[in-house]
Every structure is written in C-alpha cells, then in structure tokens.
Amino acid sequence: MRGKFITVEGIDGAGKSTHLAWLTAFLQARGIKLCATREPGGTPLGEKLRGLLLDKDQPMHLETETLLMFAARREHIDKVIEPALARGEWVLCDRFTDATFAYQGAGRGVDAGKLATLEQWVQGALQPDLTIVFDLPPAVGRARAGSIKVPDRFERESEAFFERVREGYLQRARSAPQRVRVVDASRGIDAIQAELQTIAESLCR
Ligand code: ADP
Ligand code: TYD
After folding, report:
1. Quick one: which atom of ligand 2 is closest to the CA of 53?
2. Centre of ligand 2 from the C-alpha of residue 148, in Å
3. CATH no. for residue 88?
4. Which of 76, 93, 174, 194 has the CA that lies 20 to 30 A from 99?
C-alpha cells in the first residue's frame, strides 16, 4: 500500500524542528516506516541548491530563487519522495510547495499564477495527504529563535516579510482546508504536542 505524504510548515522559529522530532518518534513507535526529509534539499543535488539558496552572500533574482526551489523539488520527488511512497513508506517532509507560495509568493511577491503553473509542471497530481502549519506571530518566533549566530538569507528578513509569509500560509490553508491543518504554535509545547497526537492518531487509523 502506498505510504502517506506529510509536510510540515511554518515561519522560521515556529517550532518546526521541535515538533518534527516528536512526530518522527511518535510515528516510528507505531511501527510506521518513515522517510524523513526536507526542502530545499533531500537529495545530493538538492542539498547543493540549498547551500546556494540559503547563502547570505549569494544574492539572486526572486524568480531564480523560485525556479531553484522547484528544481530541487523536481529532483526530490523523483529520487526520494515518489520511490518512498511507492515502497509503502510514509514521507515526513520539512517544508514543501506551500513554503514557495508563502516565502516566494506572499513574502517576495512572485505571482501566484506562475507558482501554480510550476506546481502543476513539477508535481502533476502529487499533493501531500496532510500539511501541518505551525502558526504564530513572527515576533514570538524571533524571540524564541534567539540570536542565531549567522542568520541565513531568509532568517535575516524583516518582521514585515514574515508577517506576509505567515499570511501566505494561512491563505493556502483557507484554499485547501481538507489538506492543511493550522496548529496554534504560540501555546506551550505540551498543548501543541497533545494536538499533534490527536492528528497523528487519526492518520494512523
Ligand atoms: P524552527 O525549527 O521552526 O525554527 P525550533 O523547533 O528550532 O523552531 O524552535 C525554536 C526555539 O523555540 C527552540 O529553542 C525551541 O526549544 C523553542 N520552542 C519551540 N516550540 C516552543 C513552544 N511552543 N514554546 C516555547 N518554546 C518553544
Ligand atoms: P528550514 O529548513 O526551515 O531552515 P532552518 O534549517 O534554518 O530552520 O528552511 C530553509 C529556508 O528556506 C526557510 O527560511 C524557508 C525557505 N524556503 C523558501 O523560501 N521556499 C521554499 O520553497 C522552501 C522549501 C524553503
């Protein structure tokens, strides 16, 4: 049986890494064979593209950035995501196309129609079975993340940028309510994990 494709999203500092670790352990304890991966990245070529995309000393046109995100994604789908799903593994992916709509679309202003064309081109019918968006005000995320030693090309963006990104995620959630689950990440870790447990248990049924 084909595995399930789960993606996890949120602005920087939303607690994605914390909750991904918890979710991975929870699903593995249920005996689910898991392929944990990330975007941009997840393949040798994708990880090289990630290095360029996050490099604070590598400026690029916003459409170059967008196309590189989708180029890395094409490789990731072909080499990692589709083969794992076909083997019956679940794929737990740290960010996917909703991040492009949120960061490059809402954040940087790339036209959503162009993104939808690229989404269709690169993914065809592939969509996550479930996307969890960890939602919180950017000021809270920034305070939690503390002083990142050397912030990457995205982490050094303004609070206004992250407000637009946040709204971009919420917009994506409104347009696909059956797929996207928004979790209030401004709460304490225990409350968030209790909600995650409910979500994960319903997935395992
Ligand atoms: P992200 O991967 O989204 O950037 P992290 O999981 O690394 O975020 O979390 C950033 C910081 O905030 C970490 O120090 C983490 O322990 C802390 N943190 C995460 N979630 C919460 C929460 N709900 N309440 C308080 N602190 C949190
Ligand atoms: P992430 O792995 O969450 O960063 P970190 O390891 O620093 O927590 O994501 C890397 C950055 O890439 C993040 O700032 C969001 C950005 N990004 C986009 O702008 N568009 C995309 O399509 C994706 C997948 C990520």
Report:
1. 12
2. 15
3. 3.40.50.300
4. 194
Q: What is the 3-state secondary structure (H, E, C) of 128-157?
A: CCEEEEEECCHHHHHHHHCCCCCCCCCCCC
- Burial-class residue 134 by CB neighbours within 10 Å (0-12, 13-18, 19+): buried
Which pLDDT belongs to residue 148?
A: 65
Q: pLDDT grade, residue 205 (50/70/90)?
A: confident
State how far the Cα of 197 lies from the Cα of 22, in Å rounded to an integer.
Answer: 9
Return the closest-CA partner of residue 16 out of 136, 101, 102, 159: 136
Mutate to test the pocket of ligand 1, among 11, 12, 16, 18 (most ligand atoms within 8 A of CB): 18
State which ligand 2 atom lies nearest to the alpha carbon of 154: 14
Report CA torsion sign: 126, 84, 51, 96: positive
CA pair distance 118, 71, nearest whole angstrom:
10
Query: What residues make up the domain containing 76?
Result: 5-204
Output the pLDDT for position 38. 98
Angle at 62 between CA 56 and CA 67, to 5 degrees: 100
Q: What average pLDDT score do residues 130-153 get?
A: 91
pTM across the whole model: 0.97
Pocket lining for ligand 1, CB < 6 angstroms: 10, 12-18, 144-145, 188-189, 192
Q: How many domains does the chain have?
A: 1
Summarize the confidence of residues 134-143 as an average pLDDT. 95
